[in-house]
Every structure is written in C-alpha cells, then in structure tokens.
Design goal:
This protein is mainly alpha-helical and about 230 residues long. The chain has helices at about 5-15, 30-40, 50-60, 75-90, 105-110, 125-135, 145-150, 160-170, 175-180, 190-205, 210-215, and strands at about 20-25, 65-70, 95-100. α8 (about 160-170) packs parallel to α10 (about 190-205).
C-alpha cells in the first residue's frame, strides 16, 4: 500500500538531506527517473550512458533522499541499472524510499528486512473518512446505518472510503444509497479490481457525455502532453 503523495511531499520538505526528490514510478522508466534526478542538467538524449553520467554527476559525493512512489514493476534489470550508479555516486547516509502494493517488488529490491507493511484501516477509521467526505456538515441524518454497511465493502482501504464518500455526498434518497450498497461491482474477484471498485462506481455515476470524454482521455499514455 502506498503512502499518500501529500505525506511524501511533507517528508521531503522536512528532510535534512542535501538533495531530496520524489518520482512517481508507474510504469518504471529508469531513463525518466534518472533525468528527473539530474534536474536542469539532464541531457536531451535518451541514450542510457549519457543519462547515467548526468545523473551520477548531479549526486556525486552528496547525500540524497530519493522517493520512488507506487512502484509496480518487478524487473530486476531495470532496478539494477538505476540502483548501482546511485549507490556508487551518492555519499554515505543517502536513502532510497520505495512505496509499493506488491511484495514481489520489495523482494526484487531486497528490501524486506526494512519493509514497513501498512495494514488495512479498521472499519471505524474508514467510517470516519467516509463520513467526512459524504457529510461535510457532520449530519448523517438517516444514513448512519447504511453508511456502516457501505464502509464494510471498502475492506480497510482509505482510497475506497474517500472515493465512495465523495460519490455519496450529493445522494439524498435512500434508494440511491441502497443502489450503491447492492451494486454488482462489489462482486468482482480480481485483487486489482478490489482497489478500484469505488472508482468504477464513480464512473457509472457520471453523465454519458462525461463518460465519453473520460474514455477518450484514457487512450492516451500517462503524462501525455495535450497540445
């Protein structure tokens, strides 16, 4: 489970390292990450040797904190290409913090001894997040009991509680709440789908025009620049 980006950014602001940086890592692109570390000195070329030299120069003899957020790729070749020059160039005391949802990634990075395994939230905490989003004024009205039933579907995932709470904020009829509670979306079996069930519910709640717009945007790769 990944640490929220806001918390990561705060940790970087309070870090006493000489250099600190955060990089979203899905998909894991070692060239893109190395260029981000190099900053303004990054070359225009994508030739790995040139990019590697630039990155190594930028951290040579310096302590750094590098945060790789939400890593899914467990390809050891990609990781070794990036890790070795980081270790060789950075000063003693440098740290690499990785967040991931996959144990295979931690095993690949040989980081299991230093792993912090975040557990699911209790239903009580999930309900607190859900109610904060669904009832901004704090008045749960007649929806208190059904809120607890919906929150149980979140399985301790804060993203699910937050997304569902936002979805329910403008639903004022009990029938609408029961429709969400009894949705067949909850019956999907794949683990990845468990994480995104509330997002599916939010999608189905959109107007047809917005759905079409969202699906059109989804054909473009991550970080695509629209012109």
């Amino acid at each position: 489970m990944t640490m929220p980006s806001a918390e990561l950014n705060q940790s970087l602001l309070t870090c006493d390292r000489e250099h600190a940086g955060r990089q979203d890592s899905d998909p894991f692109d070692e060239i893109k990450i190395a260029k981000a570390i190099s900053g303004d000195d990054a070359p225009n070329s994508n030739e790995w040797g040139e990019v590697l030299q630039s990155m190594s120069r930028s951290i040579q003899g310096k302590r750094f904190l590098l945060v790789l957020d939400d890593v899914w790729t467990n390809d050891p070749k990609k990781w070794e290409q990036l890790k070795v020059p980081l270790i060789q160039s950075g000063a003693k005391g440098s740290r690499i913090l990785v967040t991931t949802r996959k144990l295979e990634v931690a095993n690949m990075m040989r980081a299991t001894r230093n792993m912090i395994n975040l557990q699911e939230l209790s239903d009580e905490y999930c309900l607190s997040i859900f109610n904060h989003m669904a009832f901004p004024d704090g008045d749960v009205q007649e929806f208190g009991d059904i809120s607890k039933e919906i929150v149980k579907k979140c399985k301790g995932l804060p993203l699910a509680a937050k997304t569902l709470g936002s979805l329910m904020q403008n639903k004022t009829k009990m029938g609408e709440w029961k429709e969400v509670l009894n949705s067949k979306i909850w019956d999907l079996e794949k683990v990845e789908q468990e994480v995104f069930q509330p997002l599916f519910l939010s999608y189905y709640d959109l107007s047809p025009t917005i759905k079409s717009c969202l699906l059109y945007c989804a054909i473009f790769p991550k970080d695509h620049m629209f012109r």
